[in-house]
C-alpha cells in the first residue's frame, strides 16, 4: 500500500517595516471623517529609530474574525476595530474573505504622541496588501494607509514627505518632497520623552472636538498654507532656520486651537512647558533648535544632524532635575516602507 504525503497548503504572508514620522507642518482636522481627508496638507520627517514591524497572514476562516497582537499583547476594542476596517478595505480590493492574524511590534511608545499610529497603520497597509497579493504603487499604499490613520499616509516614504490634502480618496495622498541635495540627511530630531503613558484624548477625538468648537481653528487653517509654503521653500533653500521657525509657529498655533476649544483640550503638561523653555534657552545659547508637539506631552526638537547629540546632552542637563523620568532619543531621517513576502 502506498501513501501520498499531503502537501500542507501554503498561505501567503508578508512582513512590513514602517517608520514613524513627525509632522513639521501639521494635520489637525478632517474634511471627511470616513475617508480621512484632512482640512490641511502637511509636511513630515520620517525617523530612523522609531518604527513598527508588522506581519499579516490571511490564515483564518472568515467567521473566526481577525486577531492581532501588539508587542505580544492582544489588541482589543477600538484599536482592533480600526485594524479590521483597514483589513476589510484590502479584502474588498483583493476579493478575499479570509480573516487575518496580525503580529506587530513597536519601537515607538504606543499612543504617547510619538506617531505610533503612523508607523503602525503604514506597516499594516503594506503587509496586508502584499499578503493579499495586491501589487500597489507607493501612492496607492499611501492612500490605503491614510484610511487607517491620516498621518500614516506619510510613513510610506522616507525623509521629508508632503501629504496633499486633496478633496477625495484619489487626490489625498503623500509623496516625497523633492530633495535633490539630501537636505533631510542634515536634519535630526531630539525627542524628549516626558511621559510614555497613553494619552487620555486620542488625536482623532481631539481634532474633531477642535474643529467643532474652537474659534481659533479657522484662523489657524488660514495661516497654515503660508506655513507650509515657507517650510517647502526652506527645504528647497536648505534653510533649517526658516524650516524650524515655520514648524514652531505651526505647532504652537495648533495647540492654541486645542486650548481654545470648548471645553479645552491641552496635551501639554508642566514638563512640556519646561521642555519648551529649555528649547528656547538652547536657541539663545546658539543651538539650532525648534520645538514641535503632537497629541501628547512629549516635545520633539528639530535640529541639525551635526549638533543633535550635543543638543541632547545640553537639554538633558537643563531638564534632569525638573523631569526625573526624562528619556531622550536622537533620531535622524529614516527610510520608507519595506515589505517582504513570505509564507505563514
Ligand atoms: C497631531 O493621524 O493620529 O500628530 O487620522 O484620526 O488617525 P487620525 O489621526 P492621526 O493624527 C495626527 C495628528 C498630529 C499631527 C500630524 O501628524 O500631522
From TrEMBL:
Q: SUPFAM superfamilies from the entry? A: GHMP Kinase, C-terminal domain (SSF55060), Ribosomal protein S5 domain 2-like (SSF54211)
**Record's superkingdom?**
Bacteria
Give start and end of each Mvd1 C-terminal domain: 189-317
Q: What is its EC number?
A: 4.1.1.33
Please give the biological process terms from Gene Ontology that the record holds.
Answer: isopentenyl diphosphate biosynthetic process, mevalonate pathway
On whether ATP-binding is a keyword of this UniProt record, the answer is: yes
* Family annotation (Gene3D superfamilies): 3.30.230.10, GHMP kinase, C-terminal domain
User: Where does this protein have coiled-coil stretches?
Assistant: none
Q: Which InterPro entries match?
A: GHMP_kinase_C_sf, Mev_decarb, Mev_diP_decarb, MVD-like_N, Mvd1_C, Ribosomal_Su5_D2-typ_SF, Ribsml_uS5_D2-typ_fold_subgr
Per its UniProt entry, what is the enzyme's top EC class, as one word? lyase
| A Gene Ontology term for the protein's cellular component | cytosol
Domain Diphosphomevalonate decarboxylase-like N-terminal residue range list: 18-174
Q: Which UniProt keywords apply?
A: ATP-binding, Lipid biosynthesis, Lipid metabolism, Lyase, Nucleotide-binding
UniProt-recorded Gene Ontology molecular function terms: ATP binding; diphosphomevalonate decarboxylase activity
The UniProt similarity line reads: Belongs to the diphosphomevalonate decarboxylase family.
Query: Which PANTHER family does the entry link to?
Result: DIPHOSPHOMEVALONATE DECARBOXYLASE
In Swiss-Prot or TrEMBL terms, this protein is called diphosphomevalonate decarboxylase
